[in-house]
Amino acid sequence: MSVAVRFNDIRKDFGPVRVLHGVTFELAPGRIHGLLGENGAGKSTLMKILAGYERASAGEMLVDGRACSFGGSREAEAAGIVLIHQEFNLAEHLTIAQNIFLGHEKKRGLFVDDTAMRREARALLAQVGLARGPDTPVRELIVAEKQLVEIAKALSRHARLLIMDEPTATLTPAETARLFALMTRLRADGTTIVYISHKLDEVEHITDDVIVMRDGRFVAASATAGLARQQMANLMVGRELSDMFPEKTPAPADAPVALRVSGLAVPGWVEDLSFEVRAGEILGFAGLVGAGRSEAFEAIVGLREKRAGTISVDGREVVFRHARDAVRHGITYLSEDRKGRGLHLDLSLQDNLTLMTLERYGRPLIDLKAGRRALEAAVREFGIRTGDLSSRARMLSGGNQQKLALAKFLQPDPRVIVLDEPTRGVDIGAKRDIYFLIQRLAASGRAVIVISSELIELIGLAHRVVVMRAGRLAATLTETQLNEEELIAHATGTH
Ligand SMILES: Nc1ncnc2c1ncn2[C@@H]1O[C@H](COP(=O)(O)OP(=O)(O)OP(=O)(O)O)[C@@H](O)[C@H]1O
Ligand SMILES: [Mg+2]
Protein backbone atom coordinates (compact mmCIF):
# COMPACT_ATOMS: atom_id res chain seq x y z
CA MET A 1 0.00 0.00 0.00
CA SER A 2 2.68 2.53 0.98
CA VAL A 3 4.78 4.24 -1.63
CA ALA A 4 8.52 4.76 -1.42
CA VAL A 5 10.10 7.44 -3.57
CA ARG A 6 13.65 8.17 -4.55
CA PHE A 7 14.72 11.41 -6.27
CA ASN A 8 17.96 10.99 -8.15
CA ASP A 9 19.74 14.16 -9.22
CA ILE A 10 16.52 15.91 -10.23
CA ARG A 11 16.97 19.16 -12.11
CA LYS A 12 14.38 21.64 -13.26
CA ASP A 13 14.87 24.61 -15.53
CA PHE A 14 12.23 27.19 -16.31
CA GLY A 15 13.63 28.68 -19.50
CA PRO A 16 17.08 29.94 -18.64
CA VAL A 17 16.46 29.77 -14.90
CA ARG A 18 17.48 26.64 -13.01
CA VAL A 19 15.38 26.16 -9.88
CA LEU A 20 16.32 22.60 -8.94
CA HIS A 21 20.03 21.82 -9.07
CA GLY A 22 20.22 18.06 -8.83
CA VAL A 23 18.10 17.02 -5.85
CA THR A 24 18.71 13.57 -4.35
CA PHE A 25 16.88 12.05 -1.40
CA GLU A 26 14.44 9.32 -0.42
CA LEU A 27 10.99 9.16 1.11
CA ALA A 28 10.52 6.04 3.19
CA PRO A 29 7.04 4.49 2.91
CA GLY A 30 4.29 4.89 5.47
CA ARG A 31 5.73 7.93 7.21
CA ILE A 32 4.94 11.61 7.47
CA HIS A 33 7.79 13.58 5.95
CA GLY A 34 8.10 17.29 6.65
CA LEU A 35 9.55 19.19 3.71
CA LEU A 36 11.13 22.46 4.79
CA GLY A 37 12.86 25.31 3.05
CA GLU A 38 12.78 29.04 2.51
CA ASN A 39 10.41 30.66 0.03
CA GLY A 40 11.57 29.75 -3.44
CA ALA A 41 13.71 26.82 -2.25
CA GLY A 42 11.95 24.57 -4.74
CA LYS A 43 9.64 22.53 -2.49
CA SER A 44 6.46 23.01 -4.52
CA THR A 45 8.31 22.54 -7.80
CA LEU A 46 9.79 19.21 -6.73
CA MET A 47 6.43 18.00 -5.48
CA LYS A 48 4.72 19.10 -8.69
CA ILE A 49 7.20 16.92 -10.56
CA LEU A 50 6.37 14.01 -8.30
CA ALA A 51 2.63 14.53 -8.83
CA GLY A 52 2.82 14.98 -12.59
CA TYR A 53 2.14 18.73 -12.84
CA GLU A 54 5.66 19.47 -14.04
CA ARG A 55 8.33 17.42 -15.74
CA ALA A 56 11.91 17.25 -14.54
CA SER A 57 14.49 18.65 -16.95
CA ALA A 58 16.94 15.94 -15.94
CA GLY A 59 17.36 13.24 -13.34
CA GLU A 60 15.38 10.23 -12.33
CA MET A 61 12.45 9.54 -10.06
CA LEU A 62 11.86 6.07 -8.67
CA VAL A 63 8.47 5.13 -7.28
CA ASP A 64 8.55 1.80 -5.49
CA GLY A 65 11.84 1.13 -7.24
CA ARG A 66 10.53 1.78 -10.74
CA ALA A 67 11.63 4.78 -12.80
CA CYS A 68 8.65 7.05 -13.38
CA SER A 69 8.04 10.25 -15.25
CA PHE A 70 4.43 11.34 -15.19
CA GLY A 71 2.99 13.07 -18.21
CA GLY A 72 0.22 14.61 -16.17
CA SER A 73 -1.47 14.56 -12.78
CA ARG A 74 -3.79 11.76 -13.93
CA GLU A 75 -0.87 9.45 -14.55
CA ALA A 76 0.50 10.25 -11.10
CA GLU A 77 -2.95 9.67 -9.59
CA ALA A 78 -3.08 6.29 -11.29
CA ALA A 79 0.15 5.50 -9.43
CA GLY A 80 -1.52 6.64 -6.19
CA ILE A 81 0.20 10.03 -5.91
CA VAL A 82 -1.97 13.06 -5.17
CA LEU A 83 -0.96 16.66 -4.51
CA ILE A 84 -2.98 19.18 -2.54
CA HIS A 85 -1.98 22.51 -4.04
CA GLN A 86 -0.60 25.41 -2.08
CA GLU A 87 -2.63 27.78 -4.23
CA PHE A 88 -6.12 26.39 -4.54
CA ASN A 89 -7.22 24.78 -7.73
CA LEU A 90 -11.00 24.94 -7.34
CA ALA A 91 -13.64 25.98 -9.84
CA GLU A 92 -15.42 28.83 -8.05
CA HIS A 93 -18.72 28.52 -9.89
CA LEU A 94 -19.15 24.80 -9.21
CA THR A 95 -20.48 23.21 -6.06
CA ILE A 96 -18.36 21.45 -3.46
CA ALA A 97 -19.42 18.01 -4.73
CA GLN A 98 -18.80 18.96 -8.35
CA ASN A 99 -15.34 20.18 -7.44
CA ILE A 100 -14.47 17.06 -5.51
CA PHE A 101 -15.34 14.81 -8.43
CA LEU A 102 -14.30 17.12 -11.28
CA GLY A 103 -12.79 14.95 -13.99
CA HIS A 104 -13.61 11.83 -11.96
CA GLU A 105 -17.39 11.96 -12.12
CA LYS A 106 -19.15 8.91 -10.81
CA LYS A 107 -21.32 7.28 -13.44
CA ARG A 108 -24.26 4.95 -13.45
CA GLY A 109 -24.39 3.51 -16.90
CA LEU A 110 -23.89 6.47 -19.18
CA PHE A 111 -25.11 9.04 -16.72
CA VAL A 112 -23.42 11.08 -14.05
CA ASP A 113 -24.57 9.75 -10.70
CA ASP A 114 -25.25 12.94 -8.73
CA THR A 115 -26.79 11.13 -5.80
CA ALA A 116 -23.75 8.92 -5.27
CA MET A 117 -21.37 11.86 -5.60
CA ARG A 118 -23.33 13.95 -3.13
CA ARG A 119 -23.44 11.05 -0.69
CA GLU A 120 -19.71 10.43 -0.90
CA ALA A 121 -18.95 14.17 -0.77
CA ARG A 122 -20.97 14.38 2.45
CA ALA A 123 -18.90 11.59 4.00
CA LEU A 124 -15.64 13.23 2.91
CA LEU A 125 -16.73 16.61 4.28
CA ALA A 126 -17.48 14.97 7.61
CA GLN A 127 -13.99 13.45 7.59
CA VAL A 128 -12.28 16.79 7.07
CA GLY A 129 -14.73 18.54 9.38
CA LEU A 130 -16.35 21.00 6.99
CA ALA A 131 -19.89 21.84 8.08
CA ARG A 132 -21.26 22.72 4.64
CA GLY A 133 -23.60 20.92 2.30
CA PRO A 134 -22.18 19.30 -0.86
CA ASP A 135 -24.33 21.60 -3.03
CA THR A 136 -22.79 24.83 -1.71
CA PRO A 137 -21.07 26.78 -4.49
CA VAL A 138 -17.36 27.07 -3.79
CA ARG A 139 -17.43 30.82 -4.34
CA GLU A 140 -19.46 31.18 -1.14
CA LEU A 141 -16.74 29.59 0.98
CA ILE A 142 -14.13 31.40 3.01
CA VAL A 143 -10.47 30.60 2.44
CA ALA A 144 -10.17 28.01 5.22
CA GLU A 145 -13.22 26.16 3.92
CA LYS A 146 -11.75 26.04 0.43
CA GLN A 147 -8.66 24.43 1.89
CA LEU A 148 -10.81 21.73 3.48
CA VAL A 149 -12.53 21.10 0.13
CA GLU A 150 -9.08 20.65 -1.45
CA ILE A 151 -8.27 18.06 1.18
CA ALA A 152 -11.59 16.26 0.72
CA LYS A 153 -10.96 16.20 -3.02
CA ALA A 154 -7.54 14.60 -2.50
CA LEU A 155 -9.03 12.01 -0.15
CA SER A 156 -11.58 11.04 -2.79
CA ARG A 157 -8.68 9.95 -5.00
CA HIS A 158 -7.57 7.32 -2.45
CA ALA A 159 -3.95 8.38 -2.49
CA ARG A 160 -1.16 6.09 -1.37
CA LEU A 161 1.19 9.05 -1.34
CA LEU A 162 -0.43 12.30 -0.32
CA ILE A 163 1.45 15.58 -0.71
CA MET A 164 0.12 18.52 1.30
CA ASP A 165 1.58 21.86 0.32
CA GLU A 166 1.00 24.19 3.28
CA PRO A 167 -2.45 22.84 4.07
CA THR A 168 -2.77 24.62 7.40
CA ALA A 169 -1.77 28.12 6.30
CA THR A 170 -5.41 29.20 6.46
CA LEU A 171 -6.78 26.81 9.08
CA THR A 172 -7.75 27.52 12.67
CA PRO A 173 -6.09 25.55 15.47
CA ALA A 174 -9.18 23.34 15.79
CA GLU A 175 -9.24 22.58 12.07
CA THR A 176 -5.52 21.92 12.13
CA ALA A 177 -5.94 19.48 15.02
CA ARG A 178 -8.62 17.65 13.05
CA LEU A 179 -6.36 17.51 10.00
CA PHE A 180 -3.54 16.07 12.09
CA ALA A 181 -5.84 13.38 13.45
CA LEU A 182 -6.78 12.55 9.87
CA MET A 183 -3.10 12.40 8.84
CA THR A 184 -2.35 10.06 11.70
CA ARG A 185 -5.21 7.79 10.61
CA LEU A 186 -4.00 7.84 7.00
CA ARG A 187 -0.49 6.93 8.12
CA ALA A 188 -1.87 4.04 10.17
CA ASP A 189 -3.55 2.82 6.97
CA GLY A 190 -0.16 2.94 5.27
CA THR A 191 -0.36 6.23 3.37
CA THR A 192 2.93 8.03 2.85
CA ILE A 193 2.55 11.77 3.44
CA VAL A 194 4.69 14.74 2.48
CA TYR A 195 3.86 17.75 4.58
CA ILE A 196 5.17 21.16 3.52
CA SER A 197 4.85 23.91 6.10
CA HIS A 198 6.52 27.02 7.44
CA LYS A 199 4.97 26.41 10.84
CA LEU A 200 7.82 24.67 12.59
CA ASP A 201 5.82 23.85 15.71
CA GLU A 202 3.42 21.84 13.54
CA VAL A 203 6.29 20.15 11.73
CA GLU A 204 7.74 19.18 15.08
CA HIS A 205 4.40 17.86 16.23
CA ILE A 206 3.16 15.83 13.27
CA THR A 207 6.11 14.63 11.19
CA ASP A 208 8.34 11.57 11.56
CA ASP A 209 11.17 12.88 9.41
CA VAL A 210 12.30 16.26 8.21
CA ILE A 211 13.87 17.03 4.85
CA VAL A 212 15.39 20.45 4.28
CA MET A 213 15.94 22.14 0.92
CA ARG A 214 17.75 25.36 0.22
CA ASP A 215 18.19 27.20 -3.10
CA GLY A 216 17.01 24.26 -5.16
CA ARG A 217 19.22 21.76 -3.40
CA PHE A 218 18.81 19.05 -0.80
CA VAL A 219 20.46 20.11 2.46
CA ALA A 220 19.63 17.62 5.18
CA ALA A 221 17.34 14.82 6.30
CA SER A 222 16.80 13.79 9.87
CA ALA A 223 14.36 12.12 12.20
CA THR A 224 12.12 14.85 13.64
CA ALA A 225 12.64 13.68 17.19
CA GLY A 226 15.87 15.16 18.44
CA LEU A 227 15.85 18.04 15.97
CA ALA A 228 15.18 21.30 17.76
CA ARG A 229 13.05 23.93 16.07
CA GLN A 230 15.94 26.35 16.07
CA GLN A 231 18.08 23.77 14.24
CA MET A 232 15.36 23.35 11.60
CA ALA A 233 15.27 27.11 11.11
CA ASN A 234 19.03 27.39 10.87
CA LEU A 235 19.21 24.57 8.32
CA MET A 236 16.57 26.31 6.22
CA VAL A 237 18.18 29.70 6.08
CA GLY A 238 21.76 28.50 6.30
CA ARG A 239 22.69 30.87 9.12
CA GLU A 240 21.87 31.53 12.74
CA LEU A 241 18.64 33.49 13.14
CA SER A 242 18.80 36.05 15.91
CA ASP A 243 15.79 37.62 17.62
CA MET A 244 12.62 37.33 15.59
CA PHE A 245 11.12 40.64 16.73
CA PRO A 246 12.52 44.15 16.78
CA GLU A 247 12.70 45.91 20.08
CA LYS A 248 9.41 47.64 20.81
CA THR A 249 9.24 51.41 20.75
CA PRO A 250 6.99 53.16 23.28
CA ALA A 251 3.35 53.54 22.21
CA PRO A 252 2.84 56.99 20.65
CA ALA A 253 0.41 58.36 23.23
CA ASP A 254 0.28 61.98 21.97
CA ALA A 255 0.42 61.36 18.25
CA PRO A 256 -2.66 62.37 16.27
CA VAL A 257 -5.32 59.76 15.57
CA ALA A 258 -4.81 58.61 11.99
CA LEU A 259 -7.93 56.49 11.63
CA ARG A 260 -11.05 56.44 13.76
CA VAL A 261 -13.93 54.04 13.23
CA SER A 262 -17.19 54.46 15.16
CA GLY A 263 -20.19 52.19 15.35
CA LEU A 264 -19.31 50.09 12.32
CA ALA A 265 -21.91 47.50 11.33
CA VAL A 266 -21.48 45.07 8.46
CA PRO A 267 -24.51 42.91 7.64
CA GLY A 268 -23.95 39.34 8.83
CA TRP A 269 -20.47 40.04 10.23
CA VAL A 270 -19.87 43.06 12.42
CA GLU A 271 -21.88 44.98 15.03
CA ASP A 272 -20.98 48.27 16.66
CA LEU A 273 -17.23 48.22 16.22
CA SER A 274 -15.33 51.33 17.32
CA PHE A 275 -11.59 51.86 17.59
CA GLU A 276 -8.84 54.29 16.71
CA VAL A 277 -5.23 54.03 15.72
CA ARG A 278 -2.59 56.74 16.08
CA ALA A 279 0.20 57.70 13.76
CA GLY A 280 3.23 55.59 14.68
CA GLU A 281 1.15 52.94 16.37
CA ILE A 282 1.02 49.22 15.62
CA LEU A 283 -2.49 48.02 16.42
CA GLY A 284 -3.10 44.28 16.38
CA PHE A 285 -6.41 42.58 15.64
CA ALA A 286 -6.92 39.16 17.21
CA GLY A 287 -9.88 36.81 17.03
CA LEU A 288 -10.97 33.44 15.78
CA VAL A 289 -11.55 32.85 12.09
CA GLY A 290 -15.04 34.20 11.40
CA ALA A 291 -14.86 36.83 14.15
CA GLY A 292 -15.32 39.49 11.47
CA ARG A 293 -11.88 41.09 11.39
CA SER A 294 -11.30 40.89 7.64
CA GLU A 295 -14.92 41.77 6.94
CA ALA A 296 -14.68 44.85 9.15
CA PHE A 297 -11.68 46.16 7.25
CA GLU A 298 -13.13 45.25 3.90
CA ALA A 299 -16.09 47.43 4.82
CA ILE A 300 -13.85 50.21 6.12
CA VAL A 301 -11.90 50.51 2.86
CA GLY A 302 -14.97 50.22 0.63
CA LEU A 303 -14.65 46.62 -0.55
CA ARG A 304 -17.85 45.57 1.21
CA GLU A 305 -21.23 47.15 2.10
CA LYS A 306 -21.60 48.53 5.58
CA ARG A 307 -24.89 49.23 7.31
CA ALA A 308 -23.74 51.82 9.78
CA GLY A 309 -20.68 53.54 11.10
CA THR A 310 -18.45 56.52 10.45
CA ILE A 311 -14.83 56.60 9.43
CA SER A 312 -12.50 59.54 9.99
CA VAL A 313 -9.02 59.96 8.61
CA ASP A 314 -6.85 62.57 10.30
CA GLY A 315 -9.93 63.88 12.09
CA ARG A 316 -12.06 64.34 8.99
CA GLU A 317 -15.00 62.11 8.22
CA VAL A 318 -14.71 60.26 4.93
CA VAL A 319 -16.90 58.01 2.81
CA PHE A 320 -15.21 55.36 0.70
CA ARG A 321 -17.32 53.92 -2.08
CA HIS A 322 -14.48 51.97 -3.55
CA ALA A 323 -11.07 50.76 -2.37
CA ARG A 324 -9.61 53.38 -4.71
CA ASP A 325 -11.13 56.12 -2.52
CA ALA A 326 -9.39 54.65 0.50
CA VAL A 327 -6.05 54.52 -1.30
CA ARG A 328 -6.51 58.17 -2.27
CA HIS A 329 -7.00 59.00 1.40
CA GLY A 330 -3.85 57.15 2.32
CA ILE A 331 -5.28 53.82 3.51
CA THR A 332 -4.38 50.49 1.94
CA TYR A 333 -5.62 47.06 2.92
CA LEU A 334 -3.64 43.95 2.04
CA SER A 335 -6.21 41.19 1.87
CA GLU A 336 -5.53 37.76 3.32
CA ASP A 337 -6.83 36.33 0.07
CA ARG A 338 -3.78 37.21 -1.96
CA LYS A 339 -4.84 35.15 -4.93
CA GLY A 340 -8.29 36.69 -5.14
CA ARG A 341 -7.63 40.27 -4.17
CA GLY A 342 -3.97 40.80 -3.51
CA LEU A 343 -2.31 40.13 -6.84
CA HIS A 344 -3.14 39.74 -10.50
CA LEU A 345 -1.28 36.52 -11.13
CA ASP A 346 -1.25 36.87 -14.91
CA LEU A 347 0.24 40.35 -14.87
CA SER A 348 3.96 41.02 -14.66
CA LEU A 349 5.65 41.72 -11.35
CA GLN A 350 6.08 45.34 -12.38
CA ASP A 351 2.43 45.84 -13.36
CA ASN A 352 1.35 44.33 -10.09
CA LEU A 353 3.62 46.60 -8.15
CA THR A 354 2.59 49.83 -9.86
CA LEU A 355 -1.12 49.09 -10.23
CA MET A 356 -2.20 50.83 -7.04
CA THR A 357 -0.27 53.98 -7.77
CA LEU A 358 -2.04 54.06 -11.12
CA GLU A 359 -5.33 53.81 -9.28
CA ARG A 360 -4.29 56.53 -6.94
CA TYR A 361 -3.25 59.03 -9.54
CA GLY A 362 -5.73 57.89 -12.13
CA ARG A 363 -3.37 58.11 -15.10
CA PRO A 364 -1.13 55.61 -16.77
CA LEU A 365 2.40 55.49 -15.52
CA ILE A 366 4.26 57.14 -18.36
CA ASP A 367 7.71 56.45 -17.06
CA LEU A 368 8.27 52.73 -17.52
CA LYS A 369 11.83 53.07 -16.31
CA ALA A 370 10.54 54.41 -13.01
CA GLY A 371 8.33 51.33 -12.77
CA ARG A 372 11.30 49.09 -13.37
CA ARG A 373 13.33 50.95 -10.75
CA ALA A 374 10.48 50.57 -8.27
CA LEU A 375 10.45 46.84 -8.96
CA GLU A 376 14.18 46.51 -8.47
CA ALA A 377 13.93 48.40 -5.21
CA ALA A 378 11.05 46.22 -4.01
CA VAL A 379 12.89 43.02 -4.91
CA ARG A 380 15.84 44.26 -2.86
CA GLU A 381 13.92 45.58 0.11
CA PHE A 382 11.52 42.65 0.42
CA GLY A 383 13.97 39.95 -0.63
CA ILE A 384 11.67 38.71 -3.38
CA ARG A 385 13.30 35.69 -4.97
CA THR A 386 12.78 35.50 -8.68
CA GLY A 387 15.06 34.29 -11.42
CA ASP A 388 13.53 36.68 -13.89
CA LEU A 389 12.29 40.22 -13.25
CA SER A 390 10.06 40.20 -16.31
CA SER A 391 8.08 37.12 -15.29
CA ARG A 392 4.42 37.05 -14.30
CA ALA A 393 3.36 36.98 -10.67
CA ARG A 394 2.14 33.41 -11.12
CA MET A 395 5.74 32.24 -11.52
CA LEU A 396 6.70 33.31 -8.01
CA SER A 397 6.69 30.79 -5.18
CA GLY A 398 3.85 31.18 -2.69
CA GLY A 399 5.84 33.07 -0.09
CA ASN A 400 7.38 35.34 -2.67
CA GLN A 401 3.92 36.22 -3.96
CA GLN A 402 3.11 37.33 -0.45
CA LYS A 403 6.20 39.55 -0.36
CA LEU A 404 5.25 41.06 -3.73
CA ALA A 405 1.73 41.74 -2.42
CA LEU A 406 3.19 43.54 0.59
CA ALA A 407 5.43 45.63 -1.64
CA LYS A 408 2.47 46.46 -3.87
CA PHE A 409 0.31 47.71 -1.04
CA LEU A 410 3.11 49.91 0.25
CA GLN A 411 3.76 51.51 -3.14
CA PRO A 412 1.17 54.29 -2.74
CA ASP A 413 3.00 55.23 0.48
CA PRO A 414 -0.08 54.93 2.71
CA ARG A 415 -0.36 56.63 6.08
CA VAL A 416 -2.54 53.86 7.39
CA ILE A 417 -1.75 50.34 6.27
CA VAL A 418 -3.86 47.33 7.15
CA LEU A 419 -2.09 43.99 6.80
CA ASP A 420 -4.30 40.92 6.94
CA GLU A 421 -2.19 37.85 7.82
CA PRO A 422 0.96 39.44 6.39
CA THR A 423 3.27 36.51 7.11
CA ARG A 424 1.05 33.68 5.94
CA GLY A 425 3.10 31.20 3.92
CA VAL A 426 6.26 33.23 4.46
CA ASP A 427 9.45 31.49 5.59
CA ILE A 428 10.98 32.17 8.94
CA GLY A 429 13.73 34.45 7.68
CA ALA A 430 11.32 36.51 5.59
CA LYS A 431 8.91 36.66 8.53
CA ARG A 432 11.55 38.33 10.58
CA ASP A 433 12.18 40.80 7.74
CA ILE A 434 8.47 41.64 7.63
CA TYR A 435 8.35 42.23 11.40
CA PHE A 436 11.25 44.66 11.15
CA LEU A 437 9.60 46.34 8.16
CA ILE A 438 6.35 46.83 10.11
CA GLN A 439 8.36 48.35 12.92
CA ARG A 440 10.11 50.75 10.50
CA LEU A 441 6.78 51.76 8.97
CA ALA A 442 5.43 52.63 12.40
CA ALA A 443 8.61 54.40 13.45
CA SER A 444 8.30 56.61 10.37
CA GLY A 445 4.88 57.80 11.56
CA ARG A 446 2.53 55.46 9.75
CA ALA A 447 -0.28 53.72 11.55
CA VAL A 448 -0.06 49.97 11.02
CA ILE A 449 -2.91 47.57 11.68
CA VAL A 450 -1.96 43.90 11.76
CA ILE A 451 -4.65 41.23 11.62
CA SER A 452 -3.11 37.92 12.56
CA SER A 453 -4.03 34.50 13.84
CA GLU A 454 -0.50 34.03 15.13
CA LEU A 455 -0.75 35.37 18.65
CA ILE A 456 2.99 35.39 19.12
CA GLU A 457 3.20 37.82 16.23
CA LEU A 458 0.74 40.24 17.80
CA ILE A 459 2.41 39.98 21.18
CA GLY A 460 5.83 40.55 19.65
CA LEU A 461 4.82 43.54 17.56
CA ALA A 462 1.75 45.44 18.68
CA HIS A 463 1.36 48.39 21.01
CA ARG A 464 -2.28 47.47 21.58
CA VAL A 465 -4.45 44.58 20.43
CA VAL A 466 -8.16 44.68 19.70
CA VAL A 467 -9.79 41.28 20.22
CA MET A 468 -12.94 40.60 18.24
CA ARG A 469 -15.46 37.90 19.01
CA ALA A 470 -18.52 37.09 16.91
CA GLY A 471 -18.43 40.44 15.14
CA ARG A 472 -18.00 42.60 18.22
CA LEU A 473 -15.13 44.15 20.07
CA ALA A 474 -14.43 41.83 23.00
CA ALA A 475 -11.46 43.67 24.52
CA THR A 476 -8.65 46.09 23.85
CA LEU A 477 -5.43 44.99 25.50
CA THR A 478 -2.50 47.28 26.12
CA GLU A 479 1.11 46.16 25.98
CA THR A 480 1.33 45.14 29.61
CA GLN A 481 -1.80 42.95 29.30
CA LEU A 482 -0.60 41.13 26.21
CA ASN A 483 -0.13 37.41 26.61
CA GLU A 484 -1.50 34.30 24.93
CA GLU A 485 -3.88 33.25 27.71
CA GLU A 486 -5.48 36.68 27.86
CA LEU A 487 -5.89 36.88 24.08
CA ILE A 488 -7.39 33.39 23.82
CA ALA A 489 -9.73 33.98 26.73
CA HIS A 490 -11.18 37.11 25.10
CA ALA A 491 -11.28 35.58 21.63
CA THR A 492 -13.21 32.53 22.81
CA GLY A 493 -15.32 34.30 25.43
CA THR A 494 -14.06 32.24 28.36
CA HIS A 495 -12.82 35.28 30.22
N1 LIG B 1 6.36 28.17 -13.82
C1 LIG B 1 7.47 28.78 -13.38
N2 LIG B 1 8.21 29.57 -14.20
C2 LIG B 1 9.33 30.17 -13.77
N3 LIG B 1 9.82 30.07 -12.52
C3 LIG B 1 9.13 29.30 -11.67
C4 LIG B 1 7.92 28.63 -12.04
N4 LIG B 1 7.47 27.95 -10.97
C5 LIG B 1 8.35 28.20 -9.97
N5 LIG B 1 9.35 28.99 -10.40
C6 LIG B 1 10.49 29.46 -9.59
O1 LIG B 1 11.07 28.32 -8.97
C7 LIG B 1 11.58 28.67 -7.70
C8 LIG B 1 11.08 27.67 -6.68
O2 LIG B 1 9.69 27.86 -6.49
P1 LIG B 1 8.80 26.92 -5.56
O3 LIG B 1 7.40 27.35 -5.77
O4 LIG B 1 9.15 25.52 -5.82
O5 LIG B 1 9.31 27.34 -4.11
P2 LIG B 1 8.80 26.86 -2.66
O6 LIG B 1 9.96 26.22 -2.00
O7 LIG B 1 7.57 26.08 -2.82
O8 LIG B 1 8.54 28.25 -1.93
P3 LIG B 1 7.32 28.74 -0.93
O9 LIG B 1 7.71 28.37 0.44
O10 LIG B 1 7.34 30.23 -1.10
O11 LIG B 1 6.06 28.13 -1.42
C9 LIG B 1 11.14 30.09 -7.42
O12 LIG B 1 12.24 30.96 -7.63
C10 LIG B 1 10.07 30.34 -8.45
O13 LIG B 1 10.03 31.70 -8.84
MG1 LIG C 1 5.61 26.42 -2.33
TrEMBL record:
Ranges for domain ABC transporter: 5-240, 239-495
Cellular component aspect of the GO annotation: plasma membrane
Membrane topology note: Peripheral membrane protein
Cellular compartment(s): Cell membrane
InterPro entries: AAA+_ATPase, ABC_carbohydrate_import_ATPase, ABC_transporter-like_ATP-bd, ABC_transporter-like_CS, P-loop_NTPase
UniProt keyword annotations, A-Z: ATP-binding, Cell inner membrane, Cell membrane, Membrane, Nucleotide-binding, Repeat, Sugar transport, Translocase, Transport
Gene Ontology molecular-function annotations: ATP binding; ATP hydrolysis activity
Transport keyword on record: yes
Main location group: membrane
SMART domains (UniProt xref): AAA (SM00382)
Protein name (record): Sugar ABC transporter ATP-binding protein
Organism of origin: Paraburkholderia tagetis
